[in-house]
Amino acid sequence: MAKLPGNSQLTDLAGRPLRSLSAINRLDRAEKEAIYTSLLPARLGELLGIMPGSLCNANGQCLVSVIAPAGLSLLRLEVRARPDDSDTVFFLELSDTHYNQMELCFCIICDPGAPRFDVDIDEHGKINWFASHGRNVPEEVRSMEAGLFPNQTRRGLRLFSDFFPMLERFTDALGMEMIVAETLTYDNAIRYEKYGFDYLRGKRLMLEIDREFQPGGRYFSRLDGSSPFRMPGMERTVRGRSWAIHDGILDEPWDEVQIYKMIGVHAGINTFPRREQEN
Angle of helix 186-194 relative to helix 238-246, nearest 10 degrees? Predict the structure, then answer.
């Protein structure tokens, strides 16, 4: 049963309750596409000229791909500025768990008109899977100097604040009570705190990071100018800390930081309370 004010149980066209992604994926193509594209922020459609209730622009070019195979509890939404673009403007991957939770696997929103930084490929031109298989340090430096966070190929569109309430209402409409996710970077963890997430795993690490970036802390002392990602003063901002962590400044790998959001509840977590604000 839905909990958020004004929300109701999601049903198919015949009025049958839908309680999982796999249930939606069993519907015919048009019906499940209509449900899933309701997760796209209206401003995204306006930006790209996507016609309301459609996957296409006014020229009939399909810009939205809905990948939701029958038999799987998986959704992938891909939106491109042009059909033949290799990069997406909006990329969303969701799955539901055996515990009736929604898993937010990935959400990437990029400005298609912004400069691209090839931080996602290694020195041989191969995809590096979020720098887990090699880094492109020159591109990372350019990206950082342009004000981006680790793993960002382009600056964002500031649409996550539009998208996330829609995801929460969608999850609630399926009768689920929790959204879970893994944070790939420190800045993502801080960003999710703003939206009301708490930690399943990693809160100790987050508090330790904040403590050790204080003057006298061991991470603070490692901001010694030995690399562009370890410059004095980077401890004061989320972006600075995130790049230093990306560069391996921690005593342990950034790994398996898991978070959760109870529907309709803001956890009030803030593991970096004295941060300087950034544009």
Answer: 140
Question: Is the pTM of the predicted complex or chain greater than 0.90?
Answer: yes
Asked if residue 272 belongs to a domain, the reply is no
Last residue of a domain, one of 140, 165, 182: 182
Instruction: For residue range 112-146, list pLDDT tens digits in order.
Output: 999 999 998 877 777 766 666 678 999 999 999 99
Q: Do 86 and 97 belong to one domain?
A: yes
Contact 126/136 with Cβ under 8 angstroms?
no
How far is residue 258's CA from residue 202's CA, in Å, rounded to a whole number?
6
Residues paired with 65 in a beta bridge: 78
DSSP string, 36-60: HGGGS-HHHHHHHTBPTTSSBBTT-
Rounded CA separation 115/117 (Å): 7
* Residue 135 lies in domain: 116-152
